[in-house]
Amino acid sequence: MLSSIGVPGLILILIIALVVFGPSKLPEIGKAFGSSLKEFKKATGDIMSDDDNQNQKVESKNKNE
After folding, report:
1. Binned average pLDDT, 10 residues per bin, the chain of 65 residues
2. pTM of the prediction?
3. Where is this region: Disordered (predicted)?
């Protein structure tokens, strides 16, 4: 999705963000976005590992029967 934006599009988005939020708020917004993304990735990883664990339990149960 982001690969189709290109460099000119990213520059335009950055300029718009500077105008809307101002240069003093951008680091705070970036930090908040980064921490939110980190939590989201951790949560999806936990969900995927839980699903894998359940699948392994079902498979081992089926093999034992």
Report:
1. 77 90 88 93 87 70 64
2. 0.55
3. 45-65
Q: Output the DSSP codes for 3-61.
A: GGTHHHHHHHHHHHHHHHH-TTTHHHHHHHHHHHHHHHHHHHHHHHHHHHHHHHHHHHH
Q: Compute the residue count for the chain.
A: 65
- Whole-angstrom Cα distance, residue 27 to residue 31? 6
Sorted by where each begins, the domain ranges of the chain are 2-64
Main-chain phi, psi angles of 5, to 5 degrees? -75, -50
